[in-house]
């Protein structure tokens, strides 16, 4: 069985290679940043098991590592070395020659992830191939490896080229690549510290909780607003579900938990389209595309976000209270 830990180890190995590339070039802050990040990917399971058995020092060391990551990012010395004129010209020439074929490996990732996940449920024996505790992650990881092979086939690149170009892209993204993980963790911290209960108390004093529509609008608006603030719907979801979704919509008004959770999460993504806090989605692309307006991506997505939010509210009204 392909345990999901194996794929985390692959990520750790890639981070090690990235750190070594930067160390060789004298980019010590960037090398240290990626080297620290190897820890949770390579030893995450061991750290968790140690914490469960009462041994706290590995988790404390990792906590110190997180603080070090913040310090390194705040120093502003992360980034990638500028391309040489020859390397830039070579990439532009290759892109012009391959044209839309460049999208084949990228599109394979979601397509194969979906196929593998569905197959794991319906095809006999597939459940023994992938980790049953993390079917989605296993499907995504296997699909990514197939996409890597497809990328090599499409570009006819050398086997080492993905390492060099992947390192260049990772350095370009810098600290922003950690935002989804960090912000999702932040949502769990907020939920554990009782932020949801505080929100429930505040909402009870502001809106008429006897109104199903008022509670639903508060839930949807809260998902969008918290996502704008924290940059990630995964961070907003546990807070809003604990504060409004569970006590008011599910327990008081009888909403269906599955449809409320699914559409509610999608509503949170409307906030992702509107916030610079979602830097890896909205700011980094503007930098990589060398756009003059750093908020150009957000401006182009704003109307879609508002329209999608309205549609999601209508869907929740129709589907969650049948």
UniProtKB/TrEMBL annotation:
Superkingdom, taxonomy of origin: Bacteria
Any matching Pfam family: DUF979
Keyword match RNA-binding: no
InterPro entries in the record: DUF979
Transmembrane segments: 6-24, 31-51, 57-74, 102-123, 135-154, 175-203, 223-250, 262-283, 303-321
Keywords carried by this UniProt record: Membrane, Transmembrane, Transmembrane helix
Annotated protein name in UniProt: Membrane protein
Organism: Pseudoxanthomonas sacheonensis
């Amino acid at each position: 069985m392909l345990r999901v830990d194996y794929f985390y180890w692959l990520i750790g190995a890639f981070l090690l290679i990235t750190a070594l590339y930067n160390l060789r070039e004298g980019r010590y802050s960037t090398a240290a940043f990626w080297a620290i990040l190897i820890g949770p990917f390579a030893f995450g399971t061991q750290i968790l098991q140690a914490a469960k058995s009462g041994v706290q020092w590995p988790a404390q060391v990792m906590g110190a590592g997180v603080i070090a990551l913040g310090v390194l990012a705040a120093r502003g010395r992360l980034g990638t070395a500028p391309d040489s004129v020859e390397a830039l010209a070579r990439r532009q020439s290759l892109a012009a020659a391959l044209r839309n074929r460049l999208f084949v490996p990228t599109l394979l990732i979601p397509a194969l992830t979906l196929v593998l996940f569905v197959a794991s449920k319906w095809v006999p024996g597939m459940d023994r191939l992938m980790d049953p505790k993390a079917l989605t992650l296993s499907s995504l990881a296997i699909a990514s490896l197939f996409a890597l092979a497809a990328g090599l086939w499409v570009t006819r690149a050398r086997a080492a080229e993905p390492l060099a170009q992947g390192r260049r892209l990772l350095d370009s993204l810098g600290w922003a690549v950690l935002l989804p993980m960090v912000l999702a963790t932040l949502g769990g911290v907020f939920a554990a510290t009782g932020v949801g209960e505080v929100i429930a108390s505040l909402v009870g004093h502001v809106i008429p909780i006897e109104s199903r529509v008022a509670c639903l609008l508060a839930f949807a608006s809260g998902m969008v607003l918290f996502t704008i603030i924290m940059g990630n719907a995964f961070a907003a979801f546990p807070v809003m579900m604990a504060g409004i979704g569970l006590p008011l919509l599910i327990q008081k008004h009888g909403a269906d938990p599955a449809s409320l959770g699914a559409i509610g999460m999608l509503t949170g993504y409307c906030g992702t389209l509107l916030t610079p806090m979602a830097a890896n989605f909205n700011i980094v692309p503007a930098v990589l595309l060398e756009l003059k307006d750093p908020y150009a991506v957000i401006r182009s997505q704003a109307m879609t976000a508002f329209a999608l939010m309205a549609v999601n509210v209508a869907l929740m009204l129709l589907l969650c209270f049948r």
